[in-house]
Amino acid sequence: MLKVFSRISRRRALEGAAAGFVVFGLLLWWLLPLGDDPPTGTITFSTGTPLGVYQEYGKLLRAELDKDMPGLTVKLVNSDGSQENVARVATGHADFTIAAADAVETYEADGKPGAAGLRGIARLYDDYVQLIVPRDSDINSVADLRNKRVAIGPDRSGVRLIANRVLTAAGIDPKTGVEPVAAGIDTGPDLLKKGKLDAFFWSGGLPTDGLKDLAAHYAFRFVPIEASLVAKMHEEGDSTRYYRATNMPESAYPDIQRGSTVPTIAVSNLLMTRKDLNPRLTEWITRTVIKSRDGIGAHVHSAQLVDLRTAIYTDPLVLHEGARRYYRSVKP
Known about the structure:
Blueprint: H1 2-31, E1 41-46, H2 53-68, E2 72-77, H3 82-90, E3 96-100, H4 101-109, E4 118-134, E5 149-151, H5 158-169, E6 179-181, H6 188-193, E7 199-204, H7 209-215, E8 220-222, H8 227-234, E9 244-248, H9 254-257, E10 262-274, H10 279-291, H11 293-297, H12 308-311, H13 321-329
Parallel strand pairs: 1-2, 1-3, 5-6, 5-7
Antiparallel strand pairs: 3-10, 4-7, 4-8, 4-10, 9-10
Helix pairs in contact: 2-10, 5-8, 10-13
């Protein structure tokens, strides 16, 4: 009887060891590079304005790509933001970028050059529209911006696109109803401090370094953007369907919000490329984006929201073939 139990125990131990080896093998497969040799060459990544999340994410992603593909050179190029990013990739002036879904849809709807060749890699995180005023300002709603000096973002930015739509929804002509200033997160905070602005719009991940820095030595607050404005924006057309009414969590800028949420608008960001980019390269890049979520998220809080289950939803873009290969390979 003892020998029987001994044989059974030995068999179970071997089965357990085999199962453990399979699990270990799967973990190795997840961590090890795809294929024999990493892709090499040079790519251009269009980011965003200084102190914005696009630029910070781009720098951190480049570091992660360098670990996985040391023979790949990644050139980062600043931009005004989403609208310029989409145009650069579509026309071949950049290979990869991040852009908000509304800017992508608008570019495609306008039938601009190269729109048909745009492809998605991953849905990343959401941008939140942030409307900033001095703490003692008499501006308490979007409607109160009438005749004020308002920064609406650089000309080719995603901020400009959404700020104009918010103002229009509030019954304000963006060109004549306010004194528009083409300033972004890199210059807007300083202009506000110097009294050269009454308010400025920003659309970015939470928190944004430019606003964290401002909060450290200047008293400001956020103006709520009510859900009723989002409903009016949805009446404009297809690209506005990517806007959703939400609340900026109280944890975004705790010293400013003081435990309160702020009604606002969110829109998803997409990592994107073109159809003609090498599928193997794009597959490797997709893998690095997903694998590096926690590492990048330690520095860019919004990047923690990158998730394998939602990354594949890159509407309005269809997935690039390389990204599709990666997601199929890790499908449970």
